[in-house]
UniProtKB/TrEMBL annotation:
SUPFAM superfamilies, A to Z: HAD-like
Keyword Amino-acid biosynthesis among record annotations: yes
One GO MF term: 2-hydroxy-3-keto-5-methylthiopentenyl-1-phosphate phosphatase activity
InterPro entries per record: HAD-like_SerB, HAD-like_sf, HAD-SF_hydro_IB_MtnX, HAD_hydro_PyrdxlP_Pase-like, HAD_sf
Pfam families: HAD (PF12710)
Lineage: Bacteria, Bacillati, Bacillota, Bacilli, Bacillales
Organism: Priestia iocasae
Similarity comment text for this entry: Belongs to the HAD-like hydrolase superfamily. MtnX family.
Keyword Amino-acid biosynthesis: yes
Highest taxon above the source species: Bacteria
Enzyme's top EC category: hydrolase
Protein name: 2-hydroxy-3-keto-5-methylthiopentenyl-1-phosphate phosphatase
UniProt xrefs under Gene3D superfamilies: 3.90.1470.20, HAD superfamily/HAD-like
Function: Dephosphorylates 2-hydroxy-3-keto-5-methylthiopentenyl-1-phosphate (HK-MTPenyl-1-P) yielding 1,2-dihydroxy-3-keto-5-methylthiopentene (DHK-MTPene).
Length: 220
């Protein structure tokens, strides 16, 4: 038996595009764009930026936002088959997401067990949407990630596990630096090339499955 553990991003990795950006484009007043620019330029942390963006939205939009996301977001090809494959192989698969519970869980539906999903949470009890952060950075991470992927990997993986990170963007980079195997698409590919981080690239989860099959072969 292999001791592979897989960590997989959600937005832009399991889904075809970024759901926070889609929600802001559809519902937020124009100020959201400056907050996004501040995050990208690293003038403010991801946690601060995401919190600020959602605080622009009234809580009573909840149902409309969920409906919008369910109608617009698409799960990447091969994902549910990939989850089945990991179950058959007894390979733990964790979703580690900077997304928010109210869209992550409905989009995943029953494809994957909820106890394997780690993301930010939301509170709609006040006038505006408040994001809460159950998985913040440990004392080894100072990025204010919001949902801290390096911290989750340190918590969930053991020394002798063969760790895999699947992701698409800058928010997966610190995790990519820690793991044994990186499977990347889009911006994360560029970053890995720039920093000489060995990686495989993917477009669908059928591609991901092939990489994991190779890994199973060399680790058993
Ligand atoms: Mg992503
Ligand atoms: Zn962190």
């Amino acid at each position: 038996m292999s001791n592979i553990k897989i960590f997989c991003d959600f937005d832009g990795t399991i889904t075809n595009s970024d759901n926070i950006i889609a929600i802001m484009k559809q519902f937020a007043p124009p100020e959201w764009d400056a907050i996004k620019e501040d995050v990208l330029a690293q003038r403010i942390s991801i946690q601060e930026g995401v919190g600020k963006m959602f605080s622009l939205l009234p809580s009573n939009l909840k149902d409309q936002i969920i409906e919008f996301i369910l109608n617009h977001a698409k799960i990447r090809e091969g994902f549910s088959e990939f989850v089945q494959f990991t179950k058959e192989q007894n390979i733990p698969l964790y979703v580690v997401s900077g997304g928010i519970d109210f869209f992550v869980y409905p989009l995943l539906g029953d494809i994957i067990d909820v106890e394997n999903v780690y993301c930010n949470q939301s509170d709609f009890s006040k006038e505006r949407i408040t994001i809460t952060w159950p998985h913040t950075c440990d004392d080894q991470c100072h990025n204010e990630c919001g949902c801290c992927k390096p911290t989750l990997i340190r918590t969930l993986a053991n020394e002798d596990d063969v760790t895999v990170m699947i992701g698409d963007s800058i928010t997966d980079l610190q995790a990519a630096k820690m793991v044994d195997t990186v499977i990347a698409r889009d911006f994360l590919v560029k970053k890995c090339e720039e920093l000489n981080i060995p990686h495989q690239s993917f477009e669908t989860f059928y591609d991901v499955r092939k990489e994991i099959e190779k890994l199973v072969e060399v680790t058993t």
